[in-house]
Amino acid sequence: MRMDPIEIFKALSNESRLQILHWLKEPEKHFIPHEGVDMRTIGVCVSQITEKLNMTQSTASQYLSILQRAGLIKTERIGKYTYYTRDEEKIREIGAFFSSQI
Questions:
Q1: Radius of gyration (C-alpha) of the chain in whole angstroms
Q2: Based on the number of CB atoms within 10 Å of its own CB, is 10 exposed (0-12), middle (13-18) or buried (19 or more)?
Q3: How far apart are the first and last CA of the chain?
Q4: The CATH fold of domain 5-90
Q5: Cα dihedral 74, 41, 27, 46 sign
Q6: d(Cα 69, Cα 88) in Å, to the nearest integer?
Q7: Residues ≥6 apart with Cβ < 8 Å to 55
Q8: What is the pLDDT of residues 12-65, one digit of tens each?
Q9: pTM higher than 0.85 for the full model?
Q10: In this predicted structure, what is the pLDDT of residue 43?
């Protein structure tokens, strides 16, 4: 994975995006499963994240897109729903990259 430190720092420079990452770390503590979906493996539905953020779906989707481009989260589409999970492997790689560079 090619690290783009600027994109990662941009993604992490917003309190709401940091909150999303925090919630996705332990989704069962912050969300009720959507239609019986296993939140650990499939993820959390965008509508649940939007509701918890108390903002429009377009703003929440924009935040999620920024996190995805930075490599911090991944998506899974099931029917008409999009689910989000943290990309723990990439987060570890990013941590290792920064610890070796900074």
A1: 14
A2: middle
A3: 18
A4: Arc Repressor Mutant, subunit A (1.10.10)
A5: positive
A6: 15
A7: 16
A8: 999 999 999 999 999 999 999 888 889 999 999 999 999 999 999 999 999 999
A9: yes
A10: 96
